[in-house]
Predict the 3D structure of the following.
Amino acid sequence: MVSIAVLGYGTVGKGTVDLIDENRALIAEKIGEDIQVKYIVDLRDFAGDRNEKKLTKNYDDVLNDKEVSIVCEMIGGSHPAFEFTMKAFAAGKSVVTSNKEVVANFGTELLAEAKKNGVSYLFEASVGGGIPIIRPLNNCLAANKIRKIDAIVNGTTNFILSQMFEQGVSFADALATAQQKGYAEANPSADVDGVDAARKIAILAAISWGELLSPDHVYTCGIRDITGADVAAAEKMGCTIKLIAHASRGEDNKLQIFVSPCMVKNDNILSTVRDVFNGVAVSGDFVGDTFFYGRGAGSDPTASAVCGDVIDAARNGRAKDRSSWTPMDPAAVRAYEDIESVFCVIDEKGEPSFTEKTTLRALSAKCGKARIFRLI
Amino acid sequence: MVSIAVLGYGTVGKGTVDLIDENRALIAEKIGEDIQVKYIVDLRDFAGDRNEKKLTKNYDDVLNDKEVSIVCEMIGGSHPAFEFTMKAFAAGKSVVTSNKEVVANFGTELLAEAKKNGVSYLFEASVGGGIPIIRPLNNCLAANKIRKIDAIVNGTTNFILSQMFEQGVSFADALATAQQKGYAEANPSADVDGVDAARKIAILAAISWGELLSPDHVYTCGIRDITGADVAAAEKMGCTIKLIAHASRGEDNKLQIFVSPCMVKNDNILSTVRDVFNGVAVSGDFVGDTFFYGRGAGSDPTASAVCGDVIDAARNGRAKDRSSWTPMDPAAVRAYEDIESVFCVIDEKGEPSFTEKTTLRALSAKCGKARIFRLI
């Protein structure tokens, strides 16, 4: 019997418990033994919940129980998620998480501590929800030099931009709809200002190149100031606008990384990512262009990724081959203004045109008040 | 030092040796020790080849060398690939392959023999070339009941159909172009008649549901008789035609599996798979819809998948968690004529229309000489 503990009984925590209830036989077959959620740790009260007997407010119950081999951390945020994860490792337990904030901020330390304790730290659910992207990058594409990642990894902003393009509504109206549908929080800043996407691209870059850049050093621009005029100009150019999380590393080894609304041509596969879906395009030196697509958020898809990791941890929890990262020196990052690209310049009359390949630094000097979008 | 042997010095074998030469430092870093191709086994002569010293015609050199822990089987075909693979397992070596024929025909026995010997049998490269699809299905989506797979897994036929739609040429002319470009063989039957795709969907179904159906029992129809009139009718209906490899399993547990040209609506992500690219759409009960895309063939992308598996085998060759399959009883497969679907019926005047959801059996009785395409 594999016994697990779920930390945080919110949307993802509940989804994980539900998935294990529903597909328990299937999971048991894959692991080779039965599985149970033995504890759910949450400080809130859930009187009458069908899992009431498993609920505890005391994390020590989990840490002291030698039967528990896997902890699913779904608390979110950096603290106490970081401390709880470190304690799990020290107690010889593997940790599976959907928490991009703690992975992006503390992934280096956490992977090292897991390795030190001979356990696993797995976070497939931290980027792209249910989309398999962490394991493919870590394993399937491991023999490639990764050249470039262009990703739509925030469903909220993608929904808003899809509404603006397809329904012709303003940012404010699209945001209100997203909030009504539960896709955006009352305070939507982490999504619409690009903070969430910055954490995710920092994680994807760390997997690709082994070095974790603090998301504070990722150039980040959100979608608040996208206007109807921008939308019209994009359409005129055969493009859509997407919040793109980009990371690339060329011959000179400088990391190029940013989150920014970009123009995406309609024949680029990323333009087909609509609504709350996510899509990640990865280029490697041998594999060429690949693309991964699916639901980037929500209880069920995230639980799918979490439970895939749980199965892996149950089968290979003590595997010695887990990746490790080193911290990335921000000096190894190219300034955003110096990243070469084709740009779409929208002049003061709203007239758009594409530039030659250039940099924002060179462009800004001569474009005055024009709106400038990177074309990816 | 991890020492590997490459069996078969054709396109994929050469690509694999080249990749290991080029990215040796990167691969060594991921494995944690250096890697070398110690033997290349091929019956042909390669006088003057830069790897001449590694070439041998005697497979026993590999089997008797205890330093060799991984054999990359790139011979193709069922025999002697099957026998060579079994011998490698008996000698305690893991095997990585790109050979869909041997996996589709003998996967059950080969996985069992690998398990018996405590080694790995890995075949990421056997479906979708460089696209990560086997490992995502086996691991990332392992907690899902897989509902449905719709896949474009043959680049040759996808190139031909793309030419027919985009250039307005006939099947014969598109095939000739594919042959000129080296995308199709002189005898193109395995590709254009759907045999290759049938093997690949049998493999994807086996990973999804643990049972391997002999590809001989997969209903298989190729693209030889697609006409300009079909293309015109599809365009009129807002569709394209793709050679779809389908597998699904519903509540009654009957397997639905086929390879057939199908109508694909232009807003279906599979319609965006053009030229020689491959795309695989997978639906699971928790993850929902996912999609994987990339180069499905060619020396470099295939070598990428092979070497990803080599890294896995080097790190986890003796892992105990590898999957195993059982043979599938063909009686558990629903007859093709009884698989429900919406169809596009093109009447004798070339006029297309969509049906309600029905079966081919019901339709054929009343549609006479009309052309009938399944809509996916």
